[in-house]
């Protein structure tokens, strides 16, 4: 197929995706929020509550990260680093993982991450949000919360997987003739979010 024909077909697909995104935003606007408790998380200086993670915002984005054992979760988190300063101009943002605060701090420093992290290891947060698999393994994703007076409500969430909308690298690779082309190579089943 000629370059121009394929380019036109791809442009049409992108318009369809944009239309679907608009429908998704419309659906989120109609959701009946689900109240959640004010979970407590571990941080290096002690503990922090979910309500405190909003900062000055009415909205909060919490990433469900599987921790240092997951190379894909690290890939996603590397991407948050670049957008963090922009995201926090609109909403609170934090990455939650089962790792201890000391492990999180050391790993974040090694990656140059600037976003805040909390440990949900000693809470039911990940399980209650649906980010623990039937086999008991952690699952990656994102939950969005909103203040509703004195209450906290969850308004949306979605899981992460290779090829999703939350890691830009997949979309660049989609433009290559061979796609991901076997990248990144073999990944240990025990440390990959795609196999939990």
From TrEMBL:
InterPro entries linked to this entry: DUF899_thioredox (IPR010296), Thioredoxin-like_sf (IPR036249)
Keywords on record: Coiled coil
Coiled-coil regions, chain positions: 3-30
Domain of life of the organism encoding this protein: Bacteria
Protein name: DUF899 domain-containing protein
Organism of this sequence: Dyella dinghuensis
């Amino acid at each position: 197929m000629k370059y121009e024909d394929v380019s036109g077909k791809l442009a049409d697909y992108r318009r369809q995706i944009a239309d679907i995104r608009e429908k998704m935003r419309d659906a989120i606007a109609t959701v009946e929020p689900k109240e959640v408790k004010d979970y407590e998380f571990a941080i290096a200086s002690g503990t922090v509550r979910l309500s405190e993670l909003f900062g000055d915002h009415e909205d909060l984005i919490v990433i469900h990260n599987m921790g240092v054992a997951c190379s894909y979760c690290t890939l996603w988190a590397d991407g948050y680093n670049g957008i963090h300063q922009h995201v926090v101009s609109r909403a609170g943002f934090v990455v939650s993982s089962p790792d201890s605060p000391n492990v999180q701090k050391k790993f974040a420093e090694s990656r140059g991450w600037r976003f805040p992290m909390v440990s949900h290891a000693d809470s039911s947060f990940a399980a209650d949000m649906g980010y623990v698999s039937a086999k008991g393994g952690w699952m990656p994703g994102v939950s969005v919360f909103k203040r509703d007076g004195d209450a906290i409500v969850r308004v949306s969430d979605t899981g992460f997987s290779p090829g999703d909308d939350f890691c830009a690298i997949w979309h660049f690779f989609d433009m290559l003739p061979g796609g991901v082309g076997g990248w990144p190579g073999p990944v240990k089943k025990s440390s990959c979010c795609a196999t939990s």
